[in-house]
Model the fold of this input.
Amino acid sequence: MHIHILGICGTFMGGVAQLAKSLGHTVTGCDANVYPPMSTQLTQAGIELTEGFGVEQLAIKPDLWVVGNVVSRGNPLMEAILNQGLAYTSGPQWVGEHILRGRKVLAVAGTHGKTSTSSMLAWVLQQAGLNPGFLIGGVPGGFGVSATLGQGDCFVIEADEYDTAFFDKRSKFVHYRPVVAVLNNLEFDHADIFPDLAAIETQFHHLVRTVPSEGRVVCPANTESLERVLKRGCWTPVERFSANGDEAPWQARVLGASRFEVLMNGEAKGLVEWDWSGLHNVNNALAVIAAAHAVGVKVTDACKALSEFPGVKRRMELRGEAAGVKVYDDFAHHPTAIATTLEGAKARMTEIAAGAGVPTGNLIALFEPRSNTMKMGTLAQALPASFDEAQAVVCYTAGIQWNVRDTLGSVGERLFTSDDLNEVIDHVVSLAQPGDWVVAMSNGSFGGIHQKLIEALATRVRA
Done:
């Protein structure tokens, strides 16, 4: 089959393209912005790319047009496809029908931590010898790719609640039909397509309705939004987890910033000692252990694998160090994710400093409110408290529709804002001292600020 993918350079659709190619299909595609790294990955996979959505692409005459949710009505190529009555489908539906059918699907859903948790789960299954396939919205360490078919029965997929396509406004994850569904958390987000939290809860309920009675739903204890989802109807055993002291079959006894014991029904089953920090990552790990256990992985094996987990690109990824200052890249863009990222970073900084017998450096939060929800300012009022752990808050404000300085006023003298990237870099360089950590948070490229900042810090040392 020849498929032509509209919106092929997105993380999800690019992964779909590579999976389709691995199945032996002829794959081509187009996008408005064809650029590295995804364009490089696709070209290396032998996938021909076209810049833009011109109607001349009709001459390609594929068997099926696969449409990403970046495409809307008015798109010239899509309008031509509709007018000529050509066969088309969405990316998630194609994945559900051609990749996931017949596989033991483990789907990871939630407002935060989907990529990290999916990556951990794929890693644990791989280390257990299950050779899983996966499709993840990031590049998990140890694999080097965001998607692979795998050779075993299991398939891990990051289950996004964003809408499927312009012609299918259900969440992507309703197409995945998982045997194990991880519902990691649930808060309001995606204000551009959801009017309120209740609307998202409805989509999560649709997902729950697809999980078989012999499957498993894994979720945190005492999360009101998820409890409302489950009370609307659940026909599957539910296993809850907690690193917060709540009553649950799966619990963690935290022994340090990056060390915890795993308990199953009150009995210690394993120990995780890793390079990651923060209670959110402990909860992610518990979800992974419970999900992996549901498909036969021993708890001790899962703990051992997590202790060796190499991480995920753009999730507290150390991009470099200069002038004694560490520069990290993180995807956090929701107030809760920002808070948990900074809490984890501060705890890890403190632990490392104590071990070395030196004072803990300052934590500098560098933030770009880039997501649609953040640009709209929908969650802006919750932002000030998210930065409590940071000694300095630097916000890049280009393209923002609300007054950042007024909204973040309670941050006080710690706050610096600018819509000029060079000014932002200069300010961070003027602040940062040896032992400090800079955590740059954005769901975009942030104008390449990480490398620019590292180079500017290095120049300061040479000057």
